[in-house]
Amino acid sequence: MSVLLYLIPIALALGLAGLVAFLWALRNGQFEDLDGAGSRILFDEEDQPARKKAPEGKSEDKPEGH
């Protein structure tokens, strides 16, 4: 029974910490665009990745072995 004297305050403190974390996330906009990340992965990007610059003396058009 004396264990409850420790467990109840610990449970209340953890619940309060969870509530504070949720309110912090809510105020900082963590839940603003829930569907955006899920739908962004389905579409290709229109931008092409930049080509790496070839070191001086080497051409990108020719394979290294030739």
Description:
The chain starts with a helix and ends in a 26-residue tail after the last helix. The chain contains two helices and no strands. The protein is mainly alpha-helical and 66 residues long. It has helices at 4-27, 36-40.
Secondary-structure element order, as H and E? HH
How many helical stretches?
Answer: 2
Gap from first CA to last CA: 82 Å
Q: Stretches where pLDDT falls below 50 for ≥5 residues?
A: none
The share of residues in helices is: 40-55%
Gyration radius over CA: 27 Å
Average pLDDT level: 82
User: Structural class of the secondary elements?
Assistant: mainly alpha
The number of strands is 0
Shape category? elongated
The percentage of residues in β strands lies in under 5%
Major beta sheet, specifics? none
List the helices and strands and how they pair.
Layout: H1 4-27, H2 36-40
Would you summarize the structure shown here?
The chain is mostly helical.
Essential attributes:
66 residues; 2 helices; 44% helix; 0% strand
